[in-house]
Each structure stands twice: as C-alpha cells, then as structure tokens.
Write a structure and sequence with these properties.
With 392 residues, the chain is mainly β. It has one domain: Sandwich (Jelly Rolls), CATH 2.60.120. The protein contains three helices and 25 strands. An eight-stranded mixed beta sheet has the order 1-12-13-14-21-16-19-2, with no helix packed on it. A six-stranded antiparallel beta sheet has the order 4-9-6-7-24-25, with no helix packed on it. A hairpin with a 4-residue loop joins β6 and β7. α1 crosses α3. It is globular and about 60 Å long. The protein starts with 5 loop residues before the first helix and ends with a strand.
Length: 392
C-alpha cells in the first residue's frame, strides 16, 4: 500500500478538481470504566511492580520517515510540531515571517514552523475525505475545525477530535495564532484509521474527546521514576477511554485498537502489556536521546515494530523519552487510495471522484476556505444539529 503525504494528497486533490470540471501496573481502586472517564479528569497514580524477564519482542527497527509508516488498520500518521511566532490581527504570523515560503504549499519547516496549505493562517483549508477516519490529537496549541456538516470546534491542550469521513465530508483544520505578544507553539498527531468495506459509506460522524475524559495514568517504576500514559483508544489497567464513533473499526470489541502516548522520565522503565495475537503494534520513538525496547537499543526518530502478543519492556535513555503506540487487529482488505480518498477498488475510487464532483459531499457552508473561530481561546464544539458543547 502506498501512503502519500498530506501535501501530496492535496496536490492530487487540486488535480482532481481540474479533472472534475473538464485525502504491568494495577490501577487505583474505583477509577475504572467509562463512567469514571466521563465524570473526572482521569489520573491514576501507581507504583510499578518488579519487571518480568525481558523478552526480545522487536521485529523491525527503521528510521521514521514523513509521514510515519503505519500498518493495517492504520493508513497514515503525521506529527506536526511547529514553533509558531506571535500572531497578528488575522491570526497568522505576519507578512515579514512569510518571506521565502511557498505560500499555499509550505512544508519547509523554515524557522521551526510551516504554513502548510494556509496563506494567512497556518493549516489545511477546505478539503474532502471518504472511506476512513481522522483522529487528531492536539498536544499544544489550538486547532479550529469546520466541516460540510455545519459542525465547528476549537480544541487543543490534550483534546482529541475523532471524525468518521464515511461516505464523504469536507473539512478545514486551521492553526490560529491567537497570542499577539508571545509565541504560539502547536503540536499534534493526525492519524488515519481505515474503515472496512461494509462501513466505508456510512454517514459522516463528528466526535470530540475532551482532555478531561481521556484516561491519564501517572505511574512510577520500581526506582520511583515517572511514567505517564494517555490512552485515546484501548483499555489499559481496566480504564476505558470514551467510545469512538459508532462505525469506527475501533468500536468493535475484537479490533484491539490502541492509540497511546507514553512519556518516560530519564532512565524510567515501563512494560507495555500484551495485546491480542495477530494484532499489529508499532512504536514511534519521536523524542529523547535513546530508548531500549525489549533487549534492543534504538535511536531517536525510530519506528519499532514489536510482537503484539508479548509484554514489551521500554527503558528511557539519559533524557525524557516519548513514544506513540499504534496497535490494532488488521482489517485485511484491499486498499485503493488516491490522496484523501480510501476505498477497496479502483472502480470505487472512480465513483468517489464522480460523487464529489456532483455533490461536493454536502457542499461548503462557510464564507471562506479556512475559517477561524474568533479571538477568544475558549474550547468548544458546535455539533451539526447546533448543540453547543464545552469541556468540563
């Protein structure tokens, strides 16, 4: 399967538009289950027990490439980490900071940040998707979402948006620079999770997982060193995150989907518990000076594919280390992808082009291609029915 970058996906989409007219711990008692997840910010503090014998569970190690390489049921993973400067009245970086950039397709990383496809505000203006889901984990900064369902959101600071594109949706993802007197750092993961053939054409669905509802495990290893695990999908130590969208592959009890971020203090040890036999499990070591996985020392910026059904011991090096875990049972179906469209056959892709040309996947109800939701930093979501939701 060939996975393209978001830049390439949108370049392909532009070509499509032209063609259309002529992408091993015990939890604290009482803090488990879905109800606990929705009532209080989910923090667990435990001390970890002695480690079991270390197994060599590593199957493959390779350098991270952009976008990060994924395995079925995932399609794509991108880590955006931008040190944006102070913003201007239009929530962008200002004309002087744009010098030397390819505006409209800036992936340069010049001065530590990119505009991507934004021309005033950084981000990804109006574009379509069909046949899969986007899971957007915003760790720093704020993201403004707008879509063809009429939904809108401003989220960040640990929030997650989970969007089922299904039969088709258009959306915009903009990174407004709200601070005019200080920097605007922005860090996020965008993860594409495939849909099986039976669910590729379901109605699009908009979900928010607010930071306070996501289980966050604050652990200590045998030497008292800190380990923090946030679980966006997949139960850990009896605690379950909020439900994914109803037609998500992750909503199936046997899908074994896990999306976890793991932060280990310098020298800290943590054992990743075993998953189901037959699942795929990838570790993305993106921050730190070194990491030992099982019996293997791996360098920073490595993809580590491990045996899913065995416990895997992680030991941080001399600096704090961070790892993204993507895990799941494969869907095991053919993948036909053209940029932001992911189907099972070429014929279905051709039908997608025709459908998008004819319907615009619901059209675009916003006055601009990259809407920004005002100057106030408050997070919110306005659902397609107009219901307003804010984090607790």
């Amino acid at each position: 399967m060939k996975v393209v970058t978001r830049r390439k996906a949108l370049e392909q989409l532009q070509q499509l538009a032209v063609a259309a007219t002529a992408l091993a711990c015990t939890p604290r008692a009482g803090a488990q289950g879905k109800a606990a997840a929705k009532e209080t910010p989910m923090k667990t503090q435990t001390s970890m027990t002695a480690q079991a014998p270390v197994l060599d569970t590593v199957l493959r190690v390779e350098p991270l490439r952009t976008p990060w390489q994924t395995m079925d049921p995932f399609l794509f993973c991108m880590h955006h980490d931008d040190a944006y400067p102070a913003g201007n009245a239009q929530f962008g970086p200002g004309e002087a900071a744009l010098a030397g950039r390819n505006i409209g397709a800036d992936f340069s990383g010049l001065s530590g940040w990119s505009m991507y496809h934004g021309d005033v505000v950084p981000g990804f203006p109006q574009h379509p998707h069909r046949g899969f889901e986007t899971v957007t984990v915003v760790r720093k900064g704020l993201l403004d979402h707008s879509d063809s369902l009429g939904a809108a959101a401003r989220y960040g600071q640990g929030d997650v948006q989970w969007l089922t594109a299904g039969g088709g949706i258009q959306h915009a993802e903009m990174f407004p620079l709200l601070n005019q007197d200080t920097d605007n750092p922005c860090e996020l993961f965008q993860i594409w999770l495939n849909l099986p053939a039976r669910d590729k054409m379901v109605a699009a669905h908009f979900s928010m997982l607010w930071a306070g509802t996501i289980p966050r495990h604050d652990l200590r290893d045998a030497a008292g060193r800190a380990v923090h695990v946030a679980t966006i999908a997949g139960t850990l130590h009896g605690r379950t995150p909020p439900e994914p969208p109803p037609h998500s592959w992750a909503a199936r009890p046997d899908s074994d989907v896990a999306i976890w971020t793991v932060k280990l203090a310098a020298g800290a040890t943590w054992t990743l518990p075993p998953a189901q036999t037959g699942s795929n499990r990838n570790l993305y070591f993106f921050r730190g000076s070194g990491l030992t996985v099982g019996t293997r020392a791996v360098p920073k910026n490595s993809l580590v594919v491990v045996q899913a059904d065995a416990p895997t011991v992680l030991v941080a090096g001399a600096e704090e280390s961070e790892v993204l875990v993507l895990q799941g049972r494969p869907i095991g179906e053919p993948v036909a992808q053209y940029g932001p469209f992911v189907m099972n056959t070429r014929q279905e892709l051709q039908q997608t082009f025709e459908d998008f040309r004819r319907t615009g996947f619901g059209g675009w109800p916003w006055p601009g291609l990259g809407p920004v939701h005002g100057a106030q930093p408050e997070r919110f979501a306005r659902r397609p029915d107009g219901t307003l939701e804010k984090p607790a």
